[in-house]
């Protein structure tokens, strides 16, 4: 019998990593030994004491009962797109040329990048930043062109660095606001400067605004596309975070800018959307009720997260060897470690010894010579306190060893 040949995977997968999930493989092995685990690694509210609003759930159940269980329109059902457009206009976004509903905001990001960039070109992405962008660009054979967030300035995007990194192969600038993993909230002046660079250099702006309703300290949120009608912008959002429904896998993209500038780009995205048929059909019926319905849950969620943010910043900053910038939104913090070894070793040994699961900063990118880790402060105050006490005790031993 002929020995079967080993199937060789595509080379495009060699450099794809996703630190948020990769660390779970290690954590699962530790959990199997019976050790108590404290998970501060996954941004899934529903794993903790947060529940999807009842009217959002009811809308999907009603859609299923009404037999909206077949394929939906490729760009999304009309009522959902109408509601998305109305909310975008309320935020000040004008010159809206297209709206499309996707399987989570992650598919919208994939579609927007796939329709835009060619091998050999590059996209400016924030560092630290969400690793999905790098994974998609690697798949496409496109260069990730990193620009840095300034830790000394509350993790604001370094506008001078963005301007310096643009070259003749640059196609787009990615902005994540509030940022994952730092929780930073970009101010209006910084955002306007980014739009000015895009306008001057003829770039598309891809703005990830999935955490736009989870803002602390009564700060005002500015949607990037509201700052200009003349720059082509794709704004990403969805139900996962603010509406506590990540498992629904419902996201969207909003394309704005001059029609004559974005027209062919929109058609390229729609080709991809038609090829994959549709996003989850019943789930789309939750969009209008979510955006237009009762938002009482948001006040409760933001109040809860504010308490947990404050505890996180206070306790981590009290640990010798850790500095933590206070997040302005989302539910992440990105503390800096003053250690001589890689943060990947810190995170691996931390979970092995204490059961506390965090993601190493290297999984999100960081300035050379710095070490960080990301914490998710979704868990209860009791869990967070125990986790931070364990981190403090472990770090003393880690530094001594």
UniProtKB/TrEMBL annotation:
Cofactor: pyridoxal 5'-phosphate
Domain Aminotransferase class I/classII large: 36-391
Keyword annotations from UniProtKB, A to Z: Aminotransferase, Pyridoxal phosphate, Transferase
GO terms, biological process: amino acid metabolic process
GO molecular function, one term: transaminase activity
Matches recorded under PANTHER family: GLUTAMATE-PYRUVATE AMINOTRANSFERASE ALAA
Designated name of the protein: Aminotransferase class I/classII large domain-containing protein
